[in-house]
Amino acid sequence: MIERIAIIITLIGFVLLFRWYIGWRSRRATQQEVKLTHFPLGQAGIIALYAEHCVQCERLQKPALARLQQRRLDIAVVWRSIQEEAQLVKQLGIMTVPTTLVRNANGQITNVNMGYVNEDVLMQQLSIVSVPTPPVRDPNRQISNEDVLMQQLSIISAPPHCL
Amino acid sequence: MKTFRFDRNALRFGQISLISVLVLGYVLNLPYAIYVGVLMLLSALFVPSWAPQLIIYRVFVHNNWTQTAIYDEDPAPHQFAQQMGLGVLVIGIVASIVGSLTVAWGAALVVIALALLNVTTGFCAGCFVYAQIAKLRSA
């Protein structure tokens, strides 16, 4: 029985060691500058690496990135096959697919996620590298009820800086 | 692509339950634990509402210890992983019937290791193999 417990502890040890190794490789890959010809210059975003026949890439990561793009219209998402980006895979020590790389506007990698990550995690990582742009007010738009109310409020209560 | 809402914490609880059953069975040398593991995976795949681990999750764990983590996702990759685990455990059962308990426990240890990896890192063994093949091809 002691022998079996020792085998289980060794197995758990190996799994934890592997987990630490993935984390270490991910941390080591960050802060590296990445040049991609297909990535918009000066824009923050995500580089998603995939492989052919990868079910997780197609069925989980792709829809998660589509949902992320609906929430953050200002970021770029580029899908690249790991065969096309052999140099990048070697440079960053990527071990599995899907892998998502969060890139800031200067071209630096700030996060490397080896394996599937959902849009909430990516949103959090992106919030550090790029602040969501507020919706631009269209000068040609028609006056709405909100504008009328704002005008009426300005008469009965002056903003603090006017006092 | 068909997606449906499911609780990721329920999935994780199912994996932890399977690991616990197999580890206990291995440590106490109870080969029937492999049969229990197969039953757990079969019920999770075909009748999730009757899966014992999911009943325990709904009754005791959910709302008491953990919050739900509901996502709209395609269940296919998770089902594929469960089918793989099921396949390996069935090999283990056949080996135990034939009388080769070493092979049976070897199969159970493979399932324990892969399920542990998935729970702790979200690591997908199949994806890792695909990535290595693609890397070799490009080299």
Brief synopsis:
The complex is a heterodimer of chains A (163) and B (139). Chain A is α+β, with helices and mostly antiparallel strands and 163 residues long. Chain A has helices at 2-29, 55-71, 86-92, 119-129, 145-156; strands spanning 45-50, 76-81, 99-103, 109-114.
Kindly describe this structure:
The complex is a heterodimer of chains A (163) and B (139). Chain A has 163 residues and is α+β, with helices and mostly antiparallel strands. Chain A contains 5 helices and 4 strands, in the order αβαβαββαα. Chain A has helices at 2-29, 55-71, 86-92, 119-129, 145-156, and strands at 45-50, 76-81, 99-103, 109-114. Chain A has a 4-stranded mixed beta sheet with strand order 2-1-3-4. In chain A, 29% of the residues are buried. Chain B is mainly alpha-helical and 139 residues long. In chain B, 74% of the residues lie in helices and 6% in strands. Chain B has 6 helices and 2 strands, in the order βαααβααα. Chain B has helices at residues 8-27, 32-46, 52-61, 76-98, 101-121, 125-138, and strands at 4-7, 70-73. A two-stranded antiparallel ribbon of chain B has the order 1-2. In chain B, α1 runs antiparallel to α5 and α2 (32-46) runs antiparallel to α4. The termini of chain B are far apart. The interface between A and B is large, with 37 and 35 residues.
